[in-house]
Specification:
The protein has no helices and eleven strands. The chain is mostly beta strands.
Length: 125
């Protein structure tokens, strides 16, 4: 059974940084698509960044390019999201997700089979 457990959320001022972690377990394949999504109140869940474990392929939403970095530690089976230069519009619940390692649309929530419980990120101006 796949489990995804997020941590690292919190409250910061604009311009600050946070690093989110997602401990993943229960996968049977050698490769998996791991992603971070976020959802602000009253808005749809949106893909922020993704990578396929074991491949040099990373994907980012335009709004976070140059500010966020997704990475994966194979030994710890953990995916990270380093968030720098945070803006108030980055505020939301951040979710870790896992799915098909060869997506046609990494930003579509339907691509993912498993989700974590979420961790809150609040950026104040």
């Amino acid at each position: 059974q796949v489990q995804l457990v997020e941590s690292g959320g919190g409250s910061v001022q604009a311009g600050g940084s946070l690093r989110l972690s997602c401990a993943a377990s229960g996968f049977t394949g050698s490769r998996v698509l791991l992603a971070w999504f976020r959802q602000a109140p009253g808005k749809e869940r949106e893909g922020v960044a993704a990578l396929t474990s074991g491949l040099n392929a990373k994907y980012y939403a335009d709004s976070v390019v140059g500010r966020f970095t997704i990475s994966h530690d194979n030994a710890k089976n953990t995916v990270y999201l380093q968030m720098n230069s945070l803006k108030p519009e980055d505020t939301g619940m951040y979710y870790c997700a896992a799915g098909n390692p060869y997506p046609t649309n990494w930003r579509a929530a339907g691509t993912y089979n498993d989700w974590g419980q979420g961790t809150q990120v609040t950026v104040s101006s």
